[in-house]
Amino acid sequence: MFSKQIKNCNNSVQSFFFSSSQNPIFPFLHNPLPAYSYTQIQTYVDVYMKWKKDPYFDSIDSIHKSIQLKPIISLKNFFISSSSSPHDNYSIPISAVSKKGYDFDVNIKVARFLRNYPSFFEEFEGPKYNLPWFRLTQKAIELNKEEKMVYAEFEADILERLKKFILMSGSKKRLPLKVIHSLQWYLGLPEEFSRDPSDFLGDSGCFRIVEMEDGLKGLAVTESSSDGNNGKFVSVLQKNAMTERTDGDLSEKRVVGLLHELLSLFVEHSAERKKLLCLRKYLGLPQKVHKAFERHPHIFYLSLKNKTCTAVLKEAYQDKLTIEPHPLANVRKKYIALMKESDIILKNRRVNNSRPFDSTNVNVKDLDSSDDEGPEMAEASL
Fold first, then answer.
1. Distance of CA 237 to the CA centre of its chain
2. Element holding 271 (H helix, E strand)
3. What residue spans carry the region label Disordered (predicted)?
């Protein structure tokens, strides 16, 4: 009886593995075929790669303080463009900027934000009604001059990066201006570009404003400036993928190569991952393009610092000779260093305010501790 059950069990196992059903587990054992008849048809493998924190990439200030620096630079540019007194360090009343927080992506009171960065913005009592005014510090003005010199000296390089970015769209050779504006900070384009692209580009002959679908304005690369590659810009990784045999996932390699080239064009060779999602439609990227960063930790690092996910091109920080640095990178680092000086200034103020009352300083007026702004400044100092 027992031997009969074993025999029936063996028959069931053989039937399971070697049956002629539509989905046998080992079909090649049931009906072997020549090796050449097997063709890979899988084009997407959803492989889970465990994320591992890397303290080195999480501690690079030029990456993680770049977004914090952006509104400071925008406000600095507003001071320069709106002030009629450059001889007075571009002074403006707080009323000229207090209602424009949304324009600078500042989600707190603008006065409070300016007081958080005294290394950039200096507060003083205005000429009338004792209202607070702000002006740029001398260090901020000097860095602004250096920044303008970089834009003038490396204009061709910055425009070439913009051209490569647009050519990633393939044969269309055009991208909506709103998409370019959303990545303008990463590309290192000056604010003049967002105000009037035609005026900024001038008569370079490489670009033209075009009409796109849905009534969008776009920026296109002209035929004569596409370097004879039919409007396609191909990265080194993409070229390698094209020359390899079809036994690899070419679609995946193309996506990785494109993302590699995209980040190599950016100032910090990094970007918030969510900012890149707007490119899916225009660069022909798959719906799950964000998965490419996770599946290739040897190429990209995903930092979760500052409550956002930032994609970093590791090669740019591991072997600096392989990725050409952006002309604006050094100036940004100097701006970040100046931004960190604000922490020291505010710390010294807190220390001075905690000392016993000194009658020798009774005539010194601290505008930051005025009655109407006192609670706000106390909160900002935390």
1. 21
2. strand 270-272
3. 357-382
> Across the strands, what pairs with 303?
310
Distance (Å, whole) CA 84 – CA 100: 19
Higher pLDDT among residues 41 and 45, named by residue: 45
pLDDT average, residue stretch 264-290: 92
Residues 6 or more apart from 69 whose CB is under 8 A from it? 332, 335, 336, 339
What are 14's two structure tokens?
Answer: 């053989």
Residue among 127, 74, 66 nearest 100 (CA): 74
* Number of neighbouring beta carbons within 10 Å of residue 17: 13
Contact 251, 292 (CB under 8 A): no
- What is the Cα–Cα distance from 193 to 23, expressed in whole angstroms? 59
| 231 vs 84, residue with greater confidence | 84
Closest CA to 59 of 310, 276, 259, 261: 310
Q: What is the DSSP letter of 325?
A: P
| 301 phi, psi to nearest 5 deg | -125, 135
Half-sphere exposure (Cβ direction) of 325: Cα atoms closer than 13 Å: 13
Q: What mean pLDDT do residues 46-66 have?
A: 86
Residue carrying the six token digits 């009658």: 359
Looking at residue 12, its amino acid is S
Distance between CA atoms of 296 and 292, rounded to whole angstroms?
6
Quote the pTM value.
0.76
Domain segments of the chain: what residues?
A: 69-153, 156-332
DSSP class of 241: H
Give the Cα separation of 221 and 172 in Å (integer).
9
CATH of 69-153, one of 3.90.320, 2.20.200, 1.25.40, 1.10.10: 1.10.10
Helices 66-82 & 138-153 angle (0-180, nearest 10)? 100
Lowest mean pLDDT among 23-32, 156-165, 353-362: 23-32
Alpha-carbon dihedral 221, 274, 112, 95, rounded to 10 degrees: 40
pLDDT in tens, 93-138: 999 999 999 999 999 999 999 999 999 999 999 887 788 999 999 9
What is the reported pLDDT for 286?
87
Task: Check residue 260 and give its pLDDT.
Answer: 95
Paired with 209 in beta bridges are 219
